[in-house]
Structures are given as C-alpha cells and as structure tokens.
TrEMBL record:
It comes from Equus caballus (Horse). Keywords: Membrane, Signal-anchor, Transmembrane, Transmembrane helix. GO terms for cellular component: membrane. It is found in: Membrane. This is N-acetylated alpha-linked acidic dipeptidase like 2. PANTHER family: INACTIVE N-ACETYLATED-ALPHA-LINKED ACIDIC DIPEPTIDASE-LIKE PROTEIN 2, N-ACETYLATED-ALPHA-LINKED ACIDIC DIPEPTIDASE. It is a single-pass type II membrane protein. The keyword Membrane applies.
Length: 744
C-alpha cells in the first residue's frame, strides 16, 4: 500500500489511459502509441485503480479526493492528446463492470463481496428529500423578507430614483448659501488667495469630502501698471482716465484701485498716437469696407464689445494693421435696468492657461517662454461716458424709449494719444480639488467646477456665488453619504484659481492630467457666474445633454412666468469649462440666471469683468432663492449623470445639431449634407437597438452597459477640430443661436 501511494500520481494517469483504451476501444483513433496497449501497464493500472477505490471509501479521505481532482486538472492541461470527457468512464462503475466481463483474470484476482441490501435506503432518501425541500422554502422566505426590509441604497446606488434625489436636494437651503456667501466675501480683501483657498479646503474637509488637496502652479500673470492708463485728446490736450474722469492727483488718490484695474490683461504696453476709427463690432465685412476708405495702419480702433468673441475681433484688427484698440460696451446692448455708463471693466486676452507654457502644464522643470504680450495691439477698456466725450455726443441717447447706439460721425476726425501700462509677474495659482469616490465605476468622473477669487484681480463677487453654491451641494450630498450611500461614478469637485486671467487654473490642471481626463471624464457641470441677472433662468449645454437639461429647465419654468428655450450652444458657456469643451470634448452643462436683454442675441458681454460692489449680488437675489434654484437644478443633473446605469446622453441630438448647422450654411456641398443624413439614420438605429435595451433592467447586461457608456461619453470627441478662429470653440456642433460657429 505504501508503494502504491508513492507512485500514485504518475501511475494513476497511466491507469486512466488504460481504462480509456479498454472502454472505448471502438473509438480509438489511428496512430495511438502502442505504449498504451502494454499488458504490464494494464495490470499495474488496474491494481492501483482497485486500491484507490478502496482507499477513497475510507473515512477522512474526502480531502484527498479534492486534492487529487486538482492534480488531475493540472496533468490533463499538460497532456494535449487526452480528452477529458473520454477519461471519465474509466473511474465510473460502468467501466469497472465492463472490465469484469471482458477479463476473467481480473475477476478471479480481484473479488469483492456484493453489497448488502439496505431496507432503509428509501426512508433515508425520503428524509433527505424532505429536508432539502424545507430548507429551500425556508431560504426563499429569508431572502424575501431580507430584501423587503433592507433599504435599496444599502447595496448600490444603481437603485436610486427621483425620490432619493429629492431627499438629498431638499436639505439645500437659501439661508445656508447666504451665510456661506457672506463669509467668503470677508476674505477676498486679502492680497493673495491663500486664505480663500485654505478656507474652502477646510470647509469641504469638515463636510466629509475625501482627499481634498491643493494643486499649485507657478504662472505668468499680467497685472495693472504702477499708474493708471490714460487717453488724451490731441486737439484740446484733455486727459482722461478709462472711467471718464479727468486726469488729476485728486482722482488718483480717491480711486486708485478703480483707476488701476480697468485694463486688458496680456495687452501690449506703451504709448500710441493715432486717428480713432469707429469699427462698430469689428465684423469682417465692416473692416473690409473701412480698409477701402481709410488707411488703418497704426491707427486706433473704437471697438464695441459683443456679437462675436473678442479674441476673434482683435485678430482681424491685427491683420488690418491697427496699432491700438479702445474697447467699450454700448449702453444700448445692456438691460434697461443696468446703468454702467461710468463703470469700467477688465478683459483678458489670454485664450487659456499659462502663457509661458502654452499647451503643457506649468510644473517644476517646464520650459518657460517669454510671452508677456499675447497681442501686438495696445488694448484699453474704457467707459461709455468717455466714448461720449471722445465723439462729442450727449451721454443720454434715449429718445421716446428708443436707444441710439454710440457712433463716431464719418466726417469727423479724432486724434488721441493712448497710454497703456501693465506688468507681468510669476505668481502661484491654487486649485482646490476634492473627490467623492464612486461605488461601481470609480474610474469614471463627473467634474463639478466653480472658481474662487484670485489675488491681484478685479473685485467682482461672482466667485463667491459660485463657491457658495458648490459648497451647499457638497453639504447636502455628504449628509447622505454618511448614511451609507455613494454615487456609482466618482464626483470631482474643483474650485479653480486664476479664472479672471484666462481660466489658468483649470487649463493647467487639465494639461497635467490630460491623458487620464480624456479617458475617464464623463461630463462637466459648470457653476461659473451663476447669478448674472434675475429675469430668467438660462440653461445651456452640449448637444448630447440637451434633452436632460430641457427636462430640468421645463420642470422649473412651469412654475414661473418666463423662461427662454433651451440653448444647446456650447460656444456660449464661459469660464473654466473652456478647456474641457475645446480640448477634451467633454459634454458640459450650465444653469444661470440672466437678464432677458442679454439673452436676445449672442452678446459675449460676459467677457467684460466689471468692478462690482459686494452688495450687487445681494441686490439681484436678496433672499438667495435664485442661488437655491441653481444649486438644486445643477445638483439633480449631477446626481443623474453620476448614478444612472446608462449615461443620460442622446446621440440623436448630436446628429440633428450637425445636420441643422450644415443646412444653414450655403457653402456646404451636397456630399456633406448626405453624410449628415446618414449620421442621423445611424444615430436613430443606435438609439433604438442599443439604448432602449440598455435602459431596460430586464435586458441590461453589465458588460454591454459599460461598452455603451464608453461610446456615449466619447461621442462629442469625434466632432473636435484642431484649428478654429481665436475665441471660437473647437466643437463642430457649436452654434451661436442656431447659426454655425464659422465666423465667415
């Protein structure tokens, strides 16, 4: 017996081979080795087989049986010519009985007494069967009541419904947002943004947000010069500051900050004297007409902000040969309730990111380029009151309720001397980033972005609204997380720094983690400047999110007097969403309150950053009810994107947007329209054949859902173009109130 055990692994395999050959002799394939037919091997194999059967019947041998099964699997994997199914009869009772019939020596050598019949076998089987049935029924009852009594959110957020969303959002209160807003305003007077960043990080951490951290970048900022810029009339010698006040020592003393901060960041600096030429809104057709009439080389353009992106208009003026630009906002383009005639503003000429590291992150060791000026033009923002003085026009141009735009008469000539002073310095910009890790898909990110005050920039208060809103949503969300719930996908909360200088914080973070973000970001929800008025709710989104945003907007607008139609143009989303739209093709959504006047046309007036008083936001929303509405609308969209098993994106809306844009452009050939039509048909098939089954829990397969979500999140990336005019977005589906983003 000891010898048999010692030679068991190898000899047992031979016994199996012999058994296979004897039982399945008629199935033997030609070419089998004669080694398998050797009689000595057969006898040895049979000895071992019978001994093994006797040992396997001994008590305590069950563990060996399991180990032997594992060894057999390993041996069989190494023996390619053996069929696992054919080996089984050799160890079955049927195989042994065939051997007894075929080989007489086997019978005489190995005799075994017949098993005694047991009259209790039937009783035992009956008892076992009854016990199994009782246990089965008992298990069903336990599972039923356990499932009935356990809350659905204890296992996965995939079972969340609208009721749970409302439970999370109902804890958002206007009073909490108001208190947070006022606390933030007390901090912005600091000369750097470290205190604000620390306050945000401490607050988010106290709410329970995971892994809140600072992300710092050393970047090149364009700051106001040591003395205010000025505009001087050559004919009279009168000198004015950008706000229209005469140049004087008293004005410098009493309004130093107001005089310094109306400037264009990253503008060329210096002094220029030339003729003022009114170019209106700076459209390409207007500039062509002006160039035929006048010499524009090194002249000064009087340019209105609005209608088209500022960077695009400045690029046209550079090509036309202008040397300077006086930039202003026509009062006729503003809501009637807004009087900004004497207000000045700041603009940034930075398309995005740190100018010293274009296209790559500003981390330690990065090569720095000398790009203090991003344009050859001297650009100076001025107030409408100063424009009225330059053109000798009355400031009140409203007659019978009709506003007359500011225009320089064609037959008059104005020669001015403009002086622009700016300085560039390397400063640290800080982002605050926190995470709420997802439960089932932690590698898919929903980014929620706000921004905070950056030192040395204008003292507007939109950042406080933005930060207060994102903090209110984090508070409501973490209350539910502490009770055991988590979203399916990871939610990343970001408070960006350097937004006023050209979305520097978001650009640098995006460039540093570009590969990860391209692969994993699902959507971006923007909270940039949520309160710009109090007349109407304004929702804007990428095409794939149009349907979801329309549902939320219509539900909210059903209780209000007026709401505009949902605008799907991503070109109008300003702020830190820029990088995620233009460079990553991430679906983006934003809710904001606007004045109705600002919604009548693509004004681009939001490019101007006014020096607002701290109480301005509270004047527009004294009870912070608008802040609460924005928080809840944005929060519900975030929850749906982060929790729905299938992303709530619509492929058909993208195809329709492409088709509509091409139809509105007369330059597109018939082939493009035909391709757009085929794209629409494919999107319809995709919606019906793939989206519908995936949204049905009975037909949903996890692997197919994951593949489908990957397709949905990458759809808009297919419509990114590499080269676009300055100021325009890189999505071919972007429009400006229904017109193609092509400026020509």
């Amino acid at each position: 017996m000891g010898e048999n055990e010692a030679s068991l692994p190898n000899t047992s395999l031979q016994g199996k081979k012999m058994a296979y050959q004897k039982v399945n002799a008629d199935q033997r394939a030609p070419g089998h080795s004669q080694y398998l037919d050797n009689d000595d091997l057969q006898a040895t194999a049979l000895d071992l087989e019978w001994d093994m059967e006797k040992e396997l019947e001994e008590p305590g041998f069950d563990q060996f049986r399991l180990d032997r099964a594992e060894n057999q699997n390993l041996e069989n994997s190494e023996t390619a010519d053996l069929n696992l199914d054919s080996i089984q009869p050799a160890t079955s009772p049927k195989g042994r009985f065939q051997r007894l019939q075929e080989e007489s020596e086997y019978v005489t050598r190995y005799t075994r007494s017949a098993p005694k019949s047991n009259p209790c076998n039937f009783c035992r089987l009956s008892k076992m069967l009854c016990t199994a049935i009782i246990l089965f029924i008992f298990g069903i009852l336990i599972g039923y009541y356990a499932h009935k009594n356990c809350p659905s959110n204890a296992t996965s957020s995939g079972t969340l419904d609208l009721q749970l969303y409302q439970e999370i959002l109902k804890t958002i209160q206007a009073e909490d947002i108001k208190n947070s807003f006022r606390n933030l305003i007390q901090l912005y007077k600091s000369e750097d943004d470290v205190e604000i960043s620390k306050k945000i990080k401490t607050h988010w951490t106290s709410l329970g947000l995971e892994d809140v951290q600072f992300v710092n970048y050393s970047v090149l900022l364009s700051l106001p010069g040591p003395s205010p810029s000025s505009v001087t009339l050559s004919s009279s010698g009168q000198c004015f500051h950008p706000n229209g006040q005469p140049c004087s020592e008293e004005a410098r003393k009493h309004g130093s900050q107001d005089l310094l901060y109306p400037y264009a960041a990253y503008s060329a600096k210096g002094t220029l004297e030339g003729e003022v030429i009114d170019v209106g809104y700076g459209k390409a057709d207007d500039l062509k007409r002006i160039k035929k009439m006048k010499n524009t080389t090194n002249q000064i353009a009087l340019l209105k902000l609005g209608k088209l992106p500022l960077l695009y208009k400045l690029s046209l003026l550079e090509k036309a040969g202008f040397g300077g630009v006086l930039l202003y906002i026509d009062p006729c383009d503003l809501p009637k309730t807004t009087n900004l005639s004497y207000d000045t503003f700041m603009v940034s000429l930075n398309p995005g990111g740190d100018p010293s590291t274009p296209g790559y992150p500003s981390v330690d060791g990065s090569f720095r380029q000398n790009r203090s000026d991003l344009t050859s033009l001297l650009v100076q923002p001025i107030s409408a009151s100063l424009v009225a003085k330059l053109i000798s026009s009355p400031q009140d141009r409203t007659k019978n309720g009709v506003c007359s735009p500011l225009e320089l008469p064609n037959n008059e000539e104005r020669i001015v001397n403009m002086q622009v002073q700016t300085v560039t310095k390397f400063k640290t910009v800080t982002n605050v980033v926190g995470y709420l890790k997802g439960l089932t898909s932690p590698d898919r990110y929903v980014i929620v972005g706000s921004h905070h005050h950056t030192a040395y920039s204008y003292n507007g208060q939109e950042w406080a609204s933005s930060t207060a809103i994102i903090t209110a949503f984090i508070r409501a969300l973490m209350l539910r997380v502490k009770r055991g719930w988590r979203p399916d996908r990871t939610i990343v909360f970001c408070s960006w720094g350097g937004t006023t200088f050209g979305n520097i914080g978001s650009y640098e973070w995006g460039e540093e983690f570009k590969k990860v973000l391209q692969r994993n970001v699902v959507a971006y929800v923007s909270l940039h400047s949520p309160i710009r008025g109090n007349s109407s709710l304004y929702s804007v989104s990428s095409p794939s999110l149009q349907q979801l945003v329309a549902e939320k907007s219509n539900f909210n607008c059903s209780r209000r007097a007026h709401c505009p139609g949902t605008n799907v143009s991503s070109v109008q989303i300003r702020g830190d969403a820029d990088y995620f739209i233009n460079h990553l093709g991430v679906p983006t959504v934003q809710f904001a309150y606007e004045d109705i006047k600002a919604l009548e046309s693509p004004s681009f007036l939001s490019e101007a950053l006014f020096l607002k008083r701290a109480t301005k936001i509270e004047e527009m929303d004294p009870f912070f009810n608008l802040h609460e509405t924005i928080t809840k609308l944005s929060g519900e969209v975030i929850l749906q994107i982060a929790n729905e098993p299938v992303l709530p994106f619509n492929a058909l809306d993208i195809a329709l947007e492409v088709q509509n844009n091409l139809k509105g452009d007369q330059l597109n050939p018939h082939q493009l329209l035909a391709l757009a039509s085929r794209l629409r048909e494919s999107a319809q098939v995709f919606q019906s054949d793939e989206m519908r089954p995936a949204n049905d829990p009975k037909e949903r397969a996890p692997i197919r859902v994951r593949m489908l979500n990957d397709i949905l999140q990458d759809m808009e990336k297919s419509f990114l173009v590499q080269q676009v005019p300055p100021g325009f977005y890189s999505l071919t589906t972007s429009t400006v109130n229904g017109n193609s983003s092509n400026p020509e």
